[in-house]
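New to this. Please check both lines:
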Amino acid sequence: MVITPCYINDGDYFGGFSEEDIGGLLEFLDDNYLGWSSTMGPVIMGNAERPELGEELTNKFCQADPEIVKQFARTTFLSDNRADLPKLKTKTLILQCTDDAIAPVEVGTCVHQQIAGSSMVLLEATGHCPNLSAPEETTAAIKAFLAA
């Protein structure tokens, strides 16, 4: 799965969000944790035709400690680790979903281009959690990578 090195658009880099988008997302999280959870769970999960998946993620958010989720979200959405990518020397698999509201295909492509020798698989899965929405496809891609 693609871990986005930077969520904020910057010059030629497309992370998927403007600074204002991220600011609004974090403000919503601070102001109304349960509302944020019920709104963002389905967005992050994608797969609108399978609402039970969005409900599952929403429930996970609601069961988590809000302060930990807020700190995780701030760290995740405000970090910029693009300069770290070329330093990676480990065999790397990038799993990119075809339609992911949190990590668009451009992000996966950028990560792949920046990590020498990496492999990228564009999954048919949609959403940000293919391990939940498409476990068979995700597992098959990982097994193929490990077997290579």
About this structure: Residues 19-78 form one domain. The chain has two domains: 19-78, 82-147.
